[in-house]
Design a protein that fits this description.
The protein is of the alpha+beta class. It contains nine helices and eleven strands. Strand 1 and strand 2 form a beta hairpin. Helix 1 runs antiparallel to helix 2 and helix 4 runs parallel beside helix 5. It is globular. The N and C termini lie far apart (50 Å).
Length: 327
C-alpha cells in the first residue's frame, strides 16, 4: 500500500481516536466508547503490517479506496461473482440518484435569508448530511443542518437518509433544538451499529436575524461580519454515542449582509500527496477576502480555492459547504 494512502488512513483513525477520547473525558468510560476506542487503537497498531487491510474471509487484500472510505473495514468483495459485482455497481448508482433527490434546492431563498450549498461525495454515495427546510406555521424561519456520519459508503449514506427523514417528519408545533437533537441521538442509538455515529450542526434562523445553533461535535461554524470572523464552538458530543445527554445551543443575531458558513471536514482536512492540509486558516482567509459576496459566490470562491490548493489531486473524503446570508 502506498505511503500516502497509509498516511491518509492513519490521519482518519487518529482523528476518530481524538473525538472518542474527548467523549470519554466528558462522559466517562462507557462500554460502547471504550470498545470503539479499542477498535481504532487496534487498527492503528496494524497499519504498515501485513495484517492491516487483509480480508478476514479470503485473506486477500482489501482495495485501498475501500479502506479510505472505512479504515476499520474487515472484508473485501471476495464472495461476489462478476455478475453480482455489476449488480452492486448498478445499485450504487441508483442509491446515488436517490441520495441526490433528497438534497434541498441549492439556492434556498426567503424574505430574509439567502442560502447556497455544495455537496460532493468522494465515492458513489456520501455520508455527509446537508439540509435546508421550513416548518408549517413558521413563515420566514429557515432550518438548516450539516452533518458527517463516521465512515463513508453505503452504511453512512443510509444513516444520512435516516437523519433526513427524521428532521422532515417532525410534527407541527414549537420545537426546542436541543430536544430535537436529543431525539436524533436516540434514533441513531436504536438503529445503528455501535461503530457508527454522526457529528451534526442543526440550526434555525428567523425573520429578525436571530440564529440558534446546536453543534453536536461537528466542525465549528464560522460567522462573517464586517468587523471580523467569529467561530462557534461545539455545544455537545456526536450523536449515536451516548444516551440521554443534553445538547446546549448557541444564539447570535446576524445583521443584513452577515453570513454563516457550515462545512464538513472534507474541506479543512483535505490533503495533498505531500501531506499539506488545507486547514481552517485557509478557510478563514477566503472568508476575509470574499465575505461580502452572496451565498452562491462565496461557496464558489471556497471551492475554487480548495481546487487551487489540491492542484489536480483527488479528494478522498466527502465534501459539503453551506453558506447562509441574511439579506
Amino acid at each position: 500500500m502506498q505511503t500516502t494512502t497509509l498516511d491518509q488512513i492513519r490521519n482518519q483513525l487518529e482523528d476518530r481516536r481524538e473525538r472518542l477520547e474527548e467523549a470519554v473525558a466528558r462522559v466517562g468510560p462507557e462500554q460502547d466508547l471504550v470498545r470503539l476506542l479499542a477498535q481504532v487503537d487496534a487498527a492503528l497498531g496494524r497499519i504498515g503490517t501485513d495484517d492491516y487491510g487483509t480480508c478476514l474471509v479470503c485473506e486477500g487484500k482489501i482495495e485501498e479506496s475501500d479502506l479510505l472510505a472505512n479504515p476499520l473495514l474487515p472484508y473485501c468483495l471476495c464472495d461476489l461473482t462478476p455478475d453480482q459485482q455489476r449488480a452492486l455497481e448498478h445499485d450504487l448508482g441508483l442509491a446515488r440518484r436517490i441520495q441526490t433527490a433528497l438534497l434541498p434546492n441549492p439556492d434556498a431563498r426567503s424574505t430574509h435569508w439567502d442560502a447556497h450549498y455544495r455537496y460532493e461525495p468522494a465515492g458513489p454515495v456520501s455520508g455527509d448530511y446537508c439540509d435546508l427546510w421550513s416548518r408549517p406555521g413558521e413563515d420566514g424561519t429557515l432550518y438548516f443542518a450539516m452533518g458527517d456520519v463516521s465512515g463513508k459508503g453505503v452504511a453512512a449514506s443510509l444513516l444520512m437518509a435516516h437523519l433526513h427523514a427524521f428532521f422532515h417528519s417532525q410534527p407541527e408545533g414549537k420545537v426546542e433544538l436541543g430536544t430535537l437533537v436529543q431525539r436524533a441521538n436516540r434514533l441513531l442509538l436504536e438503529s445503528t451499529l455501535p461503530t457508527h455515529y454522526a457529528t451534526i450542526v442543526v440550526g434555525r434562523a428567523n425573520t429578525a436575524g436571530e440564529v440558534e445553533i446546536v453543534n453536536a461535535g461537528h466542525c465549528p461554524p464560522l460567522v462573517w461580519r464586517s468587523g471580523g470572523l467569529q467561530t462557534l464552538s461545539t455545544t455537545g458530543f456526536p450523536i449515536g454515542l451516548m444516551e440521554d445527554k443534553p445538547f446546549g445551543s448557541t444564539r447570535l443575531t446576524l445583521s443584513p449582509g452577515e453570513a454563516l458558513l457550515l462545512y464538513t471536514d472534507g474541506l479543512t482536512e483535505a490533503r495533498r500527496s505531500d501531506g499539506a492540509e488545507y486547514g481552517t486558516e485557509r478557510v478563514e482567509g477566503v472568508l476575509e477576502e470574499f465575505g461580502r459576496a452572496d451565498a452562491r459566490h462565496l461557496v464558489r470562491h471556497l471551492r475554487e480555492d480548495l481546487s487551487d490548493f489540491l492542484a489536480g489531486e483527488s479528494r478522498h473524503d466527502d465534501l459539503s459547504l453551506l453558506v447562509i446570508r441574511r439579506t
